[in-house]
Amino acid sequence: MILKRLALFCYFLGILGLAGCDGELKEHPLPESLKKELARKADPTIHLNDVSGTIVLDPALRVSLSPSARLFIFARPEGVDAGPPLAVKRHSVFQFPFEFEIGQLHTMIEGTQFEGTMNLTVRLDQDGNRKSSPGDVEGKVQVTAGQKGVQLVLNNRISADAYNIQGTVNVSEALRKKIPVNVTLFIFARSEGVKRGPPLAVKRVADLQLPYEFVLGPQDIMMPGAAFEGPMVLAARIDVDGDARAGPGDIEGFVGAKPGDRNVQLLLNHLAGP
């Protein structure tokens, strides 16, 4: 009898506990942001413009997947190559061939529409960071919103050379006669908006002959682990005393660039110092 009473007592305590928990849940309504997201997903028209198809990996590349590898799919409107993508989707579990879809639910900015002609880029990112890096593999295709059966082929392995900036350093006619003999050329890269501190990358050139064809890239980074990425400003300086710091009589020039740019024209057209 005592055991039965104890069992009943425990049973009622359990019911009261559940009721208490239920009461607490009712006191915590869903956040407005979550309500909006649920309503968005419930919209019967949300998938009308989805693009879907298959991603395959070119076997000729013989790619070995790293444990941290991720698959990213980006959509950009036709003709737009910079700035945030229209939509992006990330997969951490995948195998090839991989069935994909991307659409309005994956847009980056609220209020933008997944519509029209666009370019899809798929990236097999070996380090899990969606920024492109040497060793990653990419593929691209142009599609129209709502298109099905798209074939996206990962067939372009990104090499370190793809990030190199290439171009020509020259001196304006007005300053050409002011170049002394046995000078040194320095080429610096700084991230756009950064004016102080060590440069991102630097190259030193002795025995200068103008015009000088240059290549500046990840191999010229000053701080190990720094990323050679984003818009940057290139500065070139003909230095009369061999010191990388600017001094009187040095000849300088600046130009904006980004990794992968070719045919950059860097004209030295003013004197440094007082």
Structural notes for this entry:
With 274 residues, the protein is of the alpha+beta class. The chain folds into two domains: 51-158; 161-271, Immunoglobulin-like (Sandwich), CATH 2.60.40. The protein is built from three helices and 16 strands. It has helices spanning 2-26, 32-42, 173-176; strands at residues 51-57, 70-77, 87-91, 98-102, 117-125, 137-144, 150-154, 156-157, 165-171, 184-191, 201-205, 212-216, 232-239, 251-257, 264-268, 270-271. The strands form four sheets. Strands 3-2-5-6-8 form a five-stranded antiparallel sheet, with no helix packed on it. The chain has a five-stranded antiparallel sheet with strand order 11-10-13-14-16, with no helix packed on it. Strands 4-1-7 form a three-stranded mixed sheet, with no helix packed on it. The longest helix has 25 residues, at 2-26. The chain starts with a helix and ends with a strand. The mean pLDDT is 85.
